[in-house]
Amino acid sequence: MKAAIYFSFVFLGAYALSIFVGHTQAALFLMGLSPLVVLYTVYKVLRDPNEVKVTFEDHFYQDEKFPRSKD
Hints:
Shape: elongated
Radius of gyration: 18 Å
Order of helices and strands: HH
Largest sheet: none
């Protein structure tokens, strides 16, 4: 899963860099491929075998144990 996320960030960086330096053909090509990258990343994240042990109610924030407020 981490490789798919890293790949998507590198892809996004290459797309932004191609726009910045003015390579229009490369930018259009990468823009055309972007739906495939999004689908691949979503697939890899959803099919990850690591199961999350905490619930959204217990860990509203992933880095701290703050319970979700019941407003």
